[in-house]
Design goal:
Elements: E1 6-8, H1 16-23, E2 29-34, E3 37-42, E4 171-177, E5 182-183, E6 189-196, E7 203-206, E8 211-218, E9 224-231, E10 242-250, E11 255-263, E12 267-270, E13 273-276, E14 281-283, E15 285-288, E16 293-296, E17 302-306, E18 310-312, E19 315-317, E20 418-429, E21 432-434, E22 444-447, E23 451-453, E24 463-473, E25 477-479, E26 503-507, E27 518-520, E28 529-530, E29 537-538, E30 544-549, E31 555-560, E32 566-569, E33 576-581, E34 585-592, E35 606-611
Parallel strand pairs: 1-33, 5-11, 12-15, 13-16, 14-17, 15-18, 16-19, 17-20, 18-20, 19-21, 20-24, 21-25, 24-26, 25-27, 29-35
Antiparallel strand pairs: 2-3, 4-6, 6-9, 7-10, 8-9, 10-11, 22-23, 28-30, 30-33, 31-32, 31-34, 34-35
Length: 612
């Protein structure tokens, strides 16, 4: 069953220049704003004038002759291809225009000056260089900032649309990059190239050992080109460092080149026990070796995003601790006889008895996806299900409640953290992702169960989200269980409560690979995501299909270029189609799930593509 969604995208102002080139190629054009509409108007006098009978005034198509004549330009050959128009005697007795045609060569009236005989003052009328002392009529900077209008051969002196119709050279005016920048390690990056006289039979070439062109196209008019680039990890390019990369459109004989900057990203390579206090970063690759442990410590959720491959054979830890400390984005445990943070999901405190030491009770566990357990004698209430949490982990700061503190002598455990791993390339997993809640502190006996300090509640499990374009999942473990209850050491009233479980969301292409992964508790799989085979270079004004992989019956939204969202529901098992009609240019299609505001993790569930 296919899910079909149709969206019509009107002209976008960002690409008005490209539309202008496409609509009026060869004439020049202007964009006219008429009320709420845009229209393209041809420029009337794109060629040279006709005062001496040289090439036609509007050698391209203008508003006076209705377009091309004889299948090409109006004067597809040289207008006076034989002898000059007036090869006989001119008015002053010399050859009238015995040299080159007006615009055919270099000087306006090449050969003898126009009036080589005596002038009004008795000397040569225009002795020396002719009236337009430069070479071309528009010599010097061209009127439109591009190639001189009649540079070199006359406009109609060669074959139309063959190499350089106006004798100019191919030129790239602008390069737009899908994500906004070309980054170290990035894969499937679309680029949109605007230019003049680009070789229609050519291709986009990047002479850089780190970059591979996986697809390229040039339109027939030589005004637009596009390509898809894969960038290998460049370990010599530091975080934030930049170096130029030459983007070339070439057919072997003609070419145009423009530099763009490649931005470096750090590599995260972990081989031992390391702590990362600022994990909210984008890397060129992430590699946690077998036996290595990466501990994440930050006040907010931890996000590890990689342009290149992510390989986890070791452990990434975002769990809460016994001493009240939560994992990144989790909630702190309560103090002695204190409630765990993030009420109502924080665990309730233990309560004192007749005196603080007599019949003291344990603290309750924190709650998240499930509620926390109550402490001994049901005095320290368990934390409630987190009202802000959901299976999508949207927003990303959905938290695990902290455990409640014991009535005397013990503090509650911290809640598990929130961890997102986004692999924009390949995700290879055979290690451990740990966002468990902290274990509650045990009962500390004084004079038996009557006179003693009660145990604390465990912290709730946190949340783990994984996105990947392709994945290979081995025998790993993804753990968001709640922390254990504090041990009452044989004193029932002093028992703490266990923390509730958290959330796991896995957006991976082939969820059947999960058979080898232990996920505790069970994961939510999967939210809508783009299939790896989704097209990137497409033709405009046609129906396009983009495969979206997701869970059957799942509601989701999509948008084009961050416009209004449309709501749909995934069909049965298998891919769905998002069907849109696009104008030429660079576009962004995004998918959203849950109560998303477009910020955080969901803002990057997008695909860039080029229509040309």
């Amino acid at each position: 069953m296919k899910n079909r969604i149709k969206h019509s995208l009107s002209g976008v102002a960002t690409y008005a220049f490209a539309a202008c080139l496409v609509t009026a190629y060869g004439t020049g054009c202007s964009l006219v704003i008429d009320g709420d509409r845009f229209r393209v108007q041809a420029m009337r006098d794109a060629g040279s004038d006709t005062s001496d009978g040289g090439p036609a005034r509007d050698a391209g198509s203008d508003d006076t002759d209705g377009g091309s004549i004889d299948g090409g330009d109006r004067d597809a050959g040289a207008r006076d291809a034989g002898p000059p128009r007036d090869a006989g005697p001119g008015p002053d007795g010399g050859p009238r225009d015995a040299g080159f045609d007006r615009d055919a060569g270099f000087l306006r009236d090449a050969g003898p000056p126009r009036d080589a005989g005596p002038g009004p003052d008795g000397g040569p009328r225009d002795a020396g260089p002719e009236r337009d002392a430069g070479f071309l009529r528009d010599a010097g900077p061209p009127r439109d900032g591009g190639i001189p209008r009649d540079a070199g051969p006359d406009r109609d002196g060669g074959v139309v649309d063959s190499g350089s119709p106006d004798g100019g050279v191919p030129e790239i005016a602008q390069v737009l990059i899908g994500p906004g920048a070309l980054e170290d390690g990035a894969r499937g990056v679309p680029i949109w190239i605007l230019g003049n006289l680009l070789p229609p039979s050519g291709a986009v070439v990047v002479s850089d050992p780190q970059i591979t062109v996986t697809a390229s196209r040039v339109n027939a008019m030589g005004t637009i080109a596009a390509a898809v680039l894969d960038v290998a990890v460049d370990t010599s390019l530091a975080e934030g460092g930049m170096r130029p990369v030459a983007i070339t459109v070439s057919d072997g004989a003609n070419q145009a080149t423009r530099n763009v900057m490649l931005v470096g990203r750090a590599e995260l390579d972990v081989t031992g026990n390391e702590t990362l206090t600022a994990p909210n970063a984008r890397y060129s690759r992430i590699d946690v070796a077998n036996g290595a442990v990466l501990t994440l410590g930050t006040a907010g959720p931890a996000r590890l995003v990689s342009n290149g491959p992510v390989t986890i054979a070791g452990t990434i830890r975002a769990r809460g601790a016994t001493n009240q400390t939560p994992g990144p984005g989790g909630c702190a445990g309560g103090g002695v006889r204190g409630e765990g943070a993030c009420s109502p999901s924080g665990g309730g405190p233990g309560r004192a008895g007749i005196t603080p030491l007599i019949n003291a009770t344990g603290g309750g566990g924190g709650g998240n996806r499930t509620a926390g357990q109550s402490g001994g004698a049901n005095i320290g209430d368990g934390g409630a299900i987190n009202p802000a949490g959901n299976a999508f982990v949207v927003p990303l700061d959905a938290h695990g409640g902290g455990g409640g503190g014991g009535a005397q002598g013990s503090t509650g455990a911290g809640g598990g953290g929130v961890l997102e791993i986004r692999a924009l390339s390949h995700f290879a997993f055979s290690g451990t992702l740990d966002a468990r809640g902290g274990n509650g502190a045990a009962f500390q006996p004084g004079l038996g169960c009557i006179l003693g300090s009660a145990a604390a509640g465990g912290g709730a499990g946190g949340a783990i989200v994984v996105h990947a374009r392709t994945a290979a999942l081995g025998a790993g473990m993804i753990d968001v269980r709640g922390g254990n209850a504090g041990d009452g050491m044989g004193c029932p009233d002093g028992e703490g409560g266990a923390g509730g479980h958290g959330y796991v969301r896995l957006d991976v292409p082939d969820i059947s690979d999960l058979s080898s992964v232990m996920v505790s508790p069970n994961a939510f799989t999967t939210a809508p995501m783009w299939a790896e085979a989704t097209q990137v270079l497409v033709s405009p004004q046609v129906v396009l299909h983009f495969d979206v992989v997701g869970a059957p019956g799942l509601p989701f939204e999509y948008s084009v270029d961050r416009g209004l969202r449309s709501s749909e529901t995934m069909p049965g098992s298998g891919p769905a189609d998002v069907t849109v009609s696009l104008t030429p240019g660079l576009h962004e299609l995004c998918l959203f799930v849950g109560p998303s505001t477009g910020a955080g993790t969901e803002a990057e569930n997008c695909r860039y593509l080029v229509a040309l």
